[in-house]
Amino acid sequence: MTGVTDGERTRVVRLGRVGKGVRVAVALVGIGLLINGSVRASDDAWPFGPMSQYAMSVPDDASITYTRISAQTDVGTTVDVPLNIEGAGVARAEIEARTGEIVKDPSLLQQVADGWAQKHPDQPKYVKLELIRDTTQLVKGRVVGPPTPEVLATWQVRR
Question: Residue 97: phi, psi to the nearest 5?
C-alpha cells in the first residue's frame, strides 16, 4: 500500500494482481539466474553468478601471484602498462585469462602496444613488452621479502 496525498486527504493505492504477479515473476527470474550462475560456478554469468576472483581467502602460508605487463618505451623508460580500458584498452582479467595463450604466442602482446598507441598518441610508444608474474610469499599471514618476478613472455613491438 502506498499513501498518496490528495489535498488534505490521503488515499491508499493498492497493488493489483498484475502488479504483484510481475514483481514475483521478476524476482523468480532473478533468483533462477543467480542459482544457474552459482551452480555453474562461472564468472561468465556475472552479475548473475559468483565473482569468484574476489570470493576466496588466502591461507596464512601461501604464495600470491600477480600478473602484469612491463614496457620499455621509445624514450628509454620502463613502465608498468596500465591494464584497464583507459590505459591500453585491455583489462588485467583478460590478460590473466589468456596468460597461457600469450606464453605460447607472445605476438598477442602487440594488441596491448597498439591499444596504448591508439589511446595515447602523445605519449611514448612501447617498443618491448614483457608479461611478468610476480609472486609474493606469505608466512603466518605476513609478507616475506619483495615479490619475485618471473618473465613469462617477451615481445618486440612492431612499428
Answer: -70, -25
Q: From first to last of its 159 residues, what are the pLDDT tens digits of the chain?
A: 555 555 667 788 888 899 899 999 999 988 887 777 767 665 666 666 666 545 567 788 888 899 999 999 999 999 999 998 889 999 888 899 899 999 999 999 999 999 999 999 999 999 999 999 999 999 988 899 999 999 999 999 998
Residue carrying the nine cell digits 600477480: 66
Q: Which of 39, 52, 61, 47 is nearest to 139 (CA)?
A: 61
H/E stretch holding 148 = strand 148-156
pTM above 0.70, yes or no: no
